[in-house]
Design a protein that fits this description.
Blueprint lengths: L2 H22 L3 H21 L3 H12 L1
Helix pairs in contact: 1-2, 2-3
Length: 64
């Protein structure tokens, strides 16, 4: 397993954890912040898959 695979699993796990916090959060501000973190984790996964345009669009459109 390469370092790129390990980073992919880390960012994927973080995205799942933050998405659970989005749904389970009682405060809407915390849920919105968790949603932005999910978008950044997904963008990092796209960047690790060498889809840099999609990663950039993920940040600009959804998290921006």
């Amino acid at each position: 397993m390469s370092g790129q695979d390990i980073l992919f699993y880390i960012f994927s796990t973080l995205a799942i954890a933050f998405s659970i916090l989005v749904v389970a959060g009682k405060n809407p501000i915390n849920s919105a912040f968790s949603l932005v973190l999910v978008f950044f984790c997904v963008a990092a996964d796209y960047a690790l898959m060498h889809a840099h345009l999609i990663a950039t669009l993920q940040i600009l459109v959804y998290a921006g």
